[in-house]
């Protein structure tokens, strides 16, 4: 039995989840949920028992000092709630954690128990994968679901992926079997500059989430960080002629694939999205600002990583599968697995047929 003491009745709640590890290339997805939690001052109301789901030799606990007293932080998954103000207030239930090492079915059932008790109307799971996409172009974001009706009503692609999967895919299927509407949003991260952070991919996920749930999300410094990240990678790529030539080939392939999308309808759709963000969202009013309250309790957060110079792009290996990775917790799938998106994400970035990548 899940007890939710101190959690008020929520308004049209949406659960937004992301998990560090295999489904989180460049830490783009987990950083997106962390951004929402920071901007809207999320209040943690539950944490799953780390003993049930994590191998501590894989995800080790950390020791830290609090006023001279040594304390331990265990790897886990935390749930927080934020109330978004505006003309049409609503609540978000934020789920942020690490992909579990074991008992995935129990893990998903526990999260679904919280969703049921809180009256969650939609679950949105964020993920990121490595792909053949140039860092100089907009980040492709695919929206997929296992629900045919949801795919039709929300202009998403119905997943037909078959192959190895991660906790994102398992949780989405668990939601489907439980009758809870669920959507996965996947950002494609350039495989030649896969090291975190990747603020450009995080920004792309938040923009797509904004459209999906009809809320204006305050972006803070993300836009500036995204520009700085791209400029830094530009400079590093220019220092290596082979990398620069490779990036140019990706740009040409991407631009060629996008030519059919340069239609009046596509341009009008993007212009509508721009107007919504500029004017405060379709519902009007200053949406996207948390209601202020003096009783929001602070809680232990991971120490944010300091901003660093973007890593040197990796020299492309013509014999390697660019869309794959080591699958060792860096947000990538292993070699030969196509994630839930076709390996060449540059082939048709405007087509959301990229399956439920890296479920």
- Straight-line distance between termini: 29 Å
Structural class: alpha/beta
Q: How much helicity do the residues have? A: 25-40%
Query: Strand count, sense and closure of the main sheet?
Result: 8 strands, mixed
By DSSP, the count of extended strands is 10
Global shape: globular
Number of separate helices: 9
* Beta-strand percentage range: 15-25%
CATH architecture of the domain at 13-263: 3-Layer(aba) Sandwich
Please give the order of strands in the largest beta sheet.
2-5-6-1-7-10-8-9
Mean pLDDT: 77
Low-confidence stretches: 281-359
The CATH superfamily of the domain at 13-263 is PAC-like subunit
| CATH topology category name of the domain at 13-263 | Rossmann fold
Give the SSE order as H and E letters. Answer: EHEHEEEEHEEHEHEHHHH
Q: What assembly state would you assign to the polypeptide chains in this entry?
A: single chain
Radius of gyration: 20 Å
Give the CATH level 1 class of the domain at 13-263. Alpha Beta
Region (Disordered): 277-359
InterPro entries: Proteasome_assmbl_chaperone_2, PSMG2_sf
Biased composition (Acidic residues): 349-359
Biased composition (Gly residues): 322-334
């Amino acid at each position: 039995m899940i007890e939710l003491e101190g959690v008020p009745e929520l308004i049209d709640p949406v659960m937004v989840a992301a998990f560090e590890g295999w489904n989180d290339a460049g830490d783009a997805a987990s950083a997106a949920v962390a951004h929402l939690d920071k901007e809207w001052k999320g209040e943690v109301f539950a944490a799953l028992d780390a003993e049930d789901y994590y191998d501590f030799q894989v995800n080790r606990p950390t020791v830290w000092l609090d006023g001279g007293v040594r304390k331990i932080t265990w790897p886990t998954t935390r749930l927080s709630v934020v109330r978004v103000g505006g003309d049409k207030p609503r609540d978000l239930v934020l789920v942020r954690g690490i992909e579990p090492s074991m008992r995935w079915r129990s893990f998903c059932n526990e999260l679904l128990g919280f969703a049921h008790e809180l009256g969650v109307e939609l679950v949105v799971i964020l993920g990121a994968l490595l792909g053949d996409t140039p860092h100089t172009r907009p980040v492709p974001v695919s929206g997929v679901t296992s629900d045919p009706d949801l795919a039709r009503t929300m202009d998403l692609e119905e997943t037909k992926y078959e192959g190895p999967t991660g906790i994102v895919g398992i949780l989405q299927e668990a939601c489907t079997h439980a009758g809870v509407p669920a959507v996965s949003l996947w950002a494609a991260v350039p495989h030649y500059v896969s090291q975190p952070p990747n603020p450009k991919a995080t920004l792309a996920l938040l923009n797509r989430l904004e459209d999906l749930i009809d809320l204006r999300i305050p972006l803070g410094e993300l836009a500036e960080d995204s520009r700085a990240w791209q400029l830094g990678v530009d400079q590093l790529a220019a220092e290596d002629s082979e990398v620069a030539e490779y990036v140019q080939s990706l740009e040409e392939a991407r631009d060629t694939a996008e030519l059919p999308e340069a239609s009046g309808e596509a341009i009008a759709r993007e212009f509508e999205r721009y107007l919504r963000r500029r004017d405060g969202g379709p519902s009007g009013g200053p949406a996207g600002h948390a209601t202020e309250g003096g009783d929001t309790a602070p809680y232990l957060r991971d120490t944010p990583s300091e901003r660093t110079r973007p890593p040197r792009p990796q020299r492309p290996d013509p014999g390697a599968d660019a869309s794959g990775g080591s699958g060792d917790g860096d947000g990538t799938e292993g070699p030969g697995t196509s994630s839930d998106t076709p390996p060449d994400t540059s082939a048709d970035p405007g087509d959301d047929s990229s399956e439920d990548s890296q479920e």
